[in-house]
Amino acid sequence: MQGTAKLKLKSSKKKISKPTIGWREWCSLPYLGIAKIKCKVDTGAKTSSLHAYDVEVIKRHGLEYVSFKVHPLQRDTKRVEHCLARLQEWRQVTDSGGKRTLRPVILSTLKLGSVVKEIEFTLIARDEMGFRMLLGREALKKTWLVDPSKSFILSKKSKTKLK
C-alpha cells in the first residue's frame, strides 16, 4: 500500500528545469538603465542589495521615489549610473556583521541569462564590499539553482559584452 502511494506521488510531480548559476554572475538591471553589473549570489541573504550613494527621497505626483547613483563596476568610480525608482518601503536589515540599518526598498527588473524578473532591492553604500550587488534567496527562489563551485555560468552564454 505504501509503495503505491509513493508511486502516485512520484508520478504526479512535474520535473521543472531551472537554469544553474554560479556564485557570481554578470546581469543587468534594465529598469534602472544598468547594462551590466557583477552580482554575488548570496543564499545567506534574504533580500537582494544594490550599491547606491547620494540616495534622496523625492515626491512626484504624490508618490515617493528614490533618486540615487550607482557605480556598477567594481573598482571603477568614473562610470556612474543615475537611477530613479519608486520607493516601496523602508526596512530594517541586519548585515553579515550584525549591524542593523534602515534601508529604502525598491523594485526593479533583473536580467540574468534568459530570465527577466522583477525583484526587490535594498539600497546601501557598498563601497567597502567586493561586489556592487548581492542577489539574495528571495530573488533566487523558484527560478535558479546555484552551483557554488562555479562562476559566470550564464554570463559565458550571454551576448552581453563584458568589458
Written overview of the protein:
This protein has a single domain (30-157), classed as Cathepsin D, subunit A, domain 1 (Beta Barrel), CATH 2.40.70. The protein has three helices and eleven strands, in the order H-E-E-E-E-E-E-E-E-E-E-H-E-H. It has helices at residues 2-12, 137-140, 153-157, and strands at residues 20-22, 24-29, 34-42, 48-51, 53-60, 63-70, 81-94, 100-112, 115-124, 133-136, 145-147. Strands 2-3-10-4-9-8-7-6-5 form a nine-stranded mixed sheet. The radius of gyration is 18 Å and the shape is globular.
Strand content: over 45%
Count of DSSP E strands?
11
Mean model confidence by pLDDT: 87
Share of residues in helices: 10-25%
Report the sheet with the most strands, covering strand number, pairing sense and barrel closure: 9 strands, mixed
Number of domains: 1
User: How would you classify the helix and strand content by structural class?
Assistant: mainly beta
Reading side by side through the largest sheet, how are the strands ordered?
Answer: 2-3-10-4-9-8-7-6-5
